[in-house]
Amino acid sequence: QVQLVESGGGLVQAGASLRVSCAASGGTFSSYCMGWLRQAPGKEREFVAGIASNGRSTYYADSVKGRFTISRDNAKNTVHLQMNSLKPEDTAVYYCAVSSSYSGRSYCTEENEYTYWGQGTQVTVSS
Fold first, then answer.
1. Which of 103, 120, 106 lies closest to 36, judged by CA?
2. Mean pLDDT calculated for residue range 51-69
């Protein structure tokens, strides 16, 4: 049974940094894109960052480019999102997800390509 467990969320002030992590189990995740998506109150879920199976290709939403960095450790089945220069508009529940394929922009960025999801971790940025 596939399980994705996020951790590291919390409440921070604008301009601060935060790192959220995801531990995956119950499958071979090194063969698939992994990513982070988020959902803010009253808004639809949106793509934040994705990383190909070998870690060589990364993808970011324009709103976080230059501030967020996604990384993965296939030996530990983990994926991380380092978030710097946080803004109040980054406030959301952040979800870790595993895609249906190993690489490619569409598979690593489009929400409907992600097949397994974690329960989410809350990130709140105060102004």
1. 120
2. 96
